[in-house]
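Students often ask why we bother encoding 3D structure as a string. The short answer is that it lets us treat folding as translation between two languages. Here is a chain of 498 residues written in the first language.
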Amino acid sequence: MELSSLLHDLHLSSFSEKPRPSPPLPAITELLSRLQEKLIGAPSESSSLIGQVEQLFQAADPNWLFSLNSANQEDGWTELQAAHGCLINALIGCAALPLCKDNCRSLNATAYQNVLTQAVAVSSALTALLGTLGNWERGGGARADSRSLLQVVAPPICVFAVTHFQDQMWTNSSSRAAAQRLQEALLRAGDWRDSAHLLMGDDEGRSRGIVGGVLDILQPQMTKNSWQQCEAVKLVFAWTLLQVTRPSLSHHLPRLLPPSLLLSDHYRPENCMLGVRCLHHIVLNTPAAELRQFNRAEVLYQALFKHLYTSEATVIQLVLSCLLDLLLVLEKPPSLLGPSSTHDTHMEAEHKVELRRVYAAALPGLIDRMGVAVCRHLQRVERVVLGYLEVSDPPEETSRLNILEVLERSSRAAWPRMRRRVPVLLRCLLRLLVDVSEDSQLADSARTQLMDRTAACIKLMDACCHGNIQHLLRQVDSSCCSAEVLGCLATVTMTAER
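And here it is in the second language, the structure alphabet:
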């Protein structure tokens, strides 16, 4: 029976007011196989075929569309699942992205022109299938056990939807909207609340997740030699990983960690940053004991630390944030730390203002992680404080403000060891007050913040010395600094007098 006449008969039998004799229908697996062959063998006719497949999914009786053709239920379900899976893969193949032959360059927008209309048609056909399948399974048509047909078709449909609902060169507003509708239809079909629930399922086991099936599709494409051939693969992988949290992530860690390391090791900043985000998500959502197993934490540390030699501030910012959380896995409690430690940065000799801002913003968090163990690093902290406070960072002075915060936190954590460093640090702070008060190009808000934060540091210096620097501050008069500086220092001495 030809497909067009079959669709005509299905349509009449479904919507005709007068009943008519049902025509003999072929086995659904046979029809699906024929459709698959036509979609693969006649690319020029694929657009009309996709539309006919959509009509089939909309008009056909679900009990025939998902019926078994074998007396043996096991064989029948295997055959039915395979037939639907192959047809879906053939549909998705009609909107497949062209592969990049040169791994060093991405394709331009013109290479994806044929994908746009096909993606809309395929999304529409798959949406029709999910609507029919979801209603059928909820109506009691599905098997009683866990091998639901939806579990078979959901992973490739999810990968396709995620590929096309992102704002990329191979999508436009129409294809993104169609893909978004497809993703919503997928969630409705399986009664999944959101994408995370779709991937992970329920803790109670009432709803199975499909993350394993999605990784089965992505993993062969996320190898060292193949991941750059398709622009979408890395994005779909990252989207999948970032949806999976504790405790589900641990189960799939051996399949998620290697591709993340592969991305983070790439020379292009956008790929490297994507990989670092994936690694950070893994660190945050995996128990420390599992990260230490098989030396994974050390591998992560080495992979991240080498990026501190780059000159890309955006990369370093992500790396430092990830390293701070990884230190909680690598390091023992501060009281148990030995002479060596993984706390280390390259910020001392950094001269680029943009990178200095990134380092200065990350250092307060590192001081908090170290706690009292910062005592072992006070010499380096002092050098960093002196070097960074000397250089202006207009207009917001973020580097100086962050370094002053570092000095505050270090003084609170290691106050018994700060006394011997007070003379050098106090001179630096007083010099900073004078420089800030005389800088006419500095905004009033930045000047106020700097002077307030500097005064707070001087108060802590005085507390570390048990008030011994009060007499030094009282010797400062108008002959050596402005009234603004004197007023700032007066707040320190008056607080101590109270």
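Translate back mentally: Confidence is low (pLDDT under 50) at residues 12-21, 335-341. Keep this in mind for the problem set.
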